[in-house]
Amino acid sequence: MALDFQSESFAAVCINDKWGYIDRTGKIIAKPQFDDVELWSYSNIVSVYKNEECGCIDKTGKIIIKPEYSSISIHESLGVIIVSDYDKMGVVNIQGKNVANPKINWIYYPLLF
Predict the structure, then answer these.
(1) CA 25 to CA 48: how far, in whole Å?
(2) Helix (H), strand (E) counts: the chain
(3) How far apart are CA 47 and CA 74, in angstroms?
(4) Which fold has domain 10-104?
(5) Domain coordinates of the chain in residue numbers?
(6) How far out from the chain centre does Cα 94 lie?
């Protein structure tokens, strides 16, 4: 099953109960290996879920953050992804490098709203 293509020209696809992404030619750009995926996005980065944990990939299928967090919040325009490890928060840049490990109780980011 494939869902509608996004403006970015990729679509979520489910094969054998695992989710991934294909491009408009049908080429797999992210192997169906995830339990769930973000079905649409306004950015070049989408959330993916595996074993009840969250990560993200870019539109080429490259894993930016392995699915190992309880939640993530992508803020591509600022170049950061806020990650949460249940009770602690951290920051990862959009290249996947840790800026602040998940040791922070709360991150206040007013520019994001």
Answers:
(1) 22
(2) 0, 11
(3) 8
(4) N-terminal domain of TfIIb (2.20.25)
(5) 10-104
(6) 10
